[in-house]
Amino acid sequence: TNYNKTVFVFTDAEKMSQTAENALLKLLEEPPNNAFIVITAISEYALLDTVKSRCVIMHMDRYTPDELFDYYWSLEGTEFLTDGMPNEAEVVQAVCETPGEVQQFIKQGVSRVYRYAELVFNNILDVTGANALKIGSQIAFKDEQDKIDLLLFFKSFINICGSRLDKISAQWIQITVKYVNQLSLKGVNKTMLFDNWVLDCRAVAL
User: Fold this and answer.
1) Residue 168 pLDDT > 90, yes or no?
2) Residue 172 exposed, middle or buried by CB count within 10 Å (0-12, 13-18, 19+)
């Protein structure tokens, strides 16, 4: 038996556009000979039913915080946050769920993302009127490479809320978790989602 196979891996398939996912469907309908196709996604429900029907679905255990902590230290270029903040490894351990998120967090700058989430936490109730919706000026709502990933921002915000738990922070955690779940929906408008998140967070203090 010839076990010389080619493996095609498509990661984070939940982030694919519908056009890209339809192209993937065509590949699944007529797969190359002697090939394995591996598709990873945060949830099977984030994929088209037609894609799922042509796959064998395997549910994987989540990485533990300790595994992600060790993975962080296995990478080069690690550093520590300053000014009394948790060290970078602890932030990664608390915020990230996959090695891919760890890599993206480090690439974007853990301290940069965390400090921006903290800035929003401290000021989201103080900005007035339409300026409240400008608080996301550093968030990547499309494919801006120089801006902060919205999912990492939300997860950092949740971590900050948890470290300063009071009535409003507890409500903000519930609100933000709801919007994190919506991020995995196909065709989500991130700008509108973020604006609604800001309005919901501000509403709990009224």
Assistant:
1) yes
2) buried
Q: Crossing angle, helix 88-95 and helix 150-163, to 10 degrees?
A: 100
DSSP 8-state class, residue 58: -
- What does the alpha-carbon distance between residue 97 and residue 146 come to, in Å, rounded to a whole number? 22
pLDDT tens-digit series, residues 114-153: 999 999 999 999 887 778 878 888 999 887 878 999 999 9
Q: Judge contact between 158 and 114, C-beta under 8 A.
A: no
CA separation, residue 8 to residues 5, 38, 45 (Å): 10, 6, 21
Q: Which positions ≥6 away from 187 have C-beta within 8 Å?
A: 18
> What does DSSP assign to residue 140?
E
The helix (H) or strand (E) run that includes residue 149 is strand 148-149
Of 34, 63, 57, nearest to 44 (Cα)? 57
Read off the pTM.
0.73
Q: What is the pLDDT of residues 42-98, one digit of tens each?
A: 778 778 889 999 999 988 888 888 888 888 888 755 555 445 456 788 888 889 988
Tokens 């099977």 belong to residue: 44
